[in-house]
Task: structure prediction
Amino acid sequence: TRLYLSDNQLTGSIPPEIGSLTNLTRLYLFNNQLTGEIPFEIGDLTNLERLKLHTNQLTGSIPETLCDLSDLTWSLEDSSWSVSTLFDNQLCPPYHSCIEEYVGEQNITECVYPVWHVATTGSDDNDGSEENPFATIQTGIDASTDGDTVLVESGTYLENIDYNGKNIAVIGEDRETTIIDGNQSGTVVTFENEEDTTTVLMGFTIQNGLSENGGAISCYYSYPVIKDVLIQNNSVSNSGGGLFCSSSSLTLISVIISNNSASNDGGGID
Result:
């Protein structure tokens, strides 16, 4: 069974009732003016072999149920009638790993990403909302996905944080009063999983790190933006008392690096 509705001027959203058409093998809705989210009920179309949704105004997240449609062959362009397509919409990241390389060009300017809140008065059993913040920055990072923001209230946080490859912004309330203290138990902030240029660390004092390389901040194959940060009183047994980078490119804006030490190279930066 095939449903061809492409190249019209259809408006509105794709109805969730589409999932009841379980005998469909081809669904072509491209080149219309469809809006709203892709209904998760599309995942019920288990006989679907071709799905073309490109060149509409679809928004929101891509439902994970698309990953269940194992007979689809995805493409970044409408190169043939035998491929499935999503490009030229307004679908928001993060994208599921089963499909992320085939999403193609999307207009994400209207996407709204979650904000996670952290405060010294919070609890890691909370939900990270402004009313019920987490207690640790790492918990906020762990809860986030690409594009999210972690907002940290003033206070001292005894922890060592790792972005774990997430392209997010971690923002302190004020660098003079929002302190990440490594407690001499390793690098304070780690970027080592190809974090890109949308990754931000802003508004903190980073202090009391103690490691082999990169007492305050360590970067491997990463490209973060570090802004309005004070890096002080960190030390290493080898190189980069304040900041150590390898195969990386950092953007530093209004960063003060002072009173850091290294046994070998680069007390401040290496």
About this structure: The chain has two domains: 2-102, 115-262. The chain has one helix and 22 strands. The CA atoms of residues 238 and 265 lie 7 Å apart.
